[in-house]
Specification:
4 strands; single chain; 162 residues
Length: 162
């Protein structure tokens, strides 16, 4: 589903790639790369509480008009498996985790959180309104911002789902 021409998505991602690289360089145990041909981001890290390897992928087709599809995958096979998804945790001053038992990142910047993609939120409006949807929820307008939110919520997660 491409909401914008692929050339536009690639240009935006090429522009954001340096911010992603800068964010990764400030993190411990993170690596991430954007594949402009596949319109995909792959990130690897370890779960802060358990040391479990994590692989996070984002389908960036249609970005920035619509948010990415974020998935936690089996680090060895790249397959989506229930145990590869983090459990939610509590962050002081933040109401709720982006990691929900439905095993999607539940945030306006996550395409799978929207009802039209099987998610729980039919109340956020159209995907193209993702930067303005649900102002009381987590906010992330760039790929680096999204990775930062994932890292923040991972820091409070007790582990991955069994």
């Amino acid at each position: 589903m491409t909401a914008v021409p692929i050339a536009v998505t690639r240009a935006v991602l090429a522009d954001e790639a340096s911010a992603v690289a800068a964010w990764v360089s400030r993190q411990q145990d993170w690596e991430a790369a954007i594949d402009l041909d596949a319109l995909q981001l792959t990130a690897r890290t370890t779960h802060p509480a358990t040391g479990t390897p994590l692989r996070i992928e984002a389908d960036l087709d249609g970005y920035p008009a619509i948010p990415p599809v974020w998935r936690f995958l089996d680090p060895a096979t790249g397959q989506p498996l229930p145990y590869a998804f983090p459990q939610g945790g509590t962050i002081p001053g933040i109401s709720g985790s982006i990691f929900h038992s439905n095993r999607v990142i539940c945030a306006p910047w996550s395409r799978l959180a929207y009802a039209e993609h099987g998610g729980p939120h039919g109340d956020w409006g159209d995907l193209t309104n993702w930067k303005n949807a649900a102002p009381a929820y987590t906010k992330a307008d760039t790929i680096a911002d999204m990775l930062s939110q994932i890292a923040l919520h991972l820091s409070a997660s007790p582990g991955t789902h069994p």
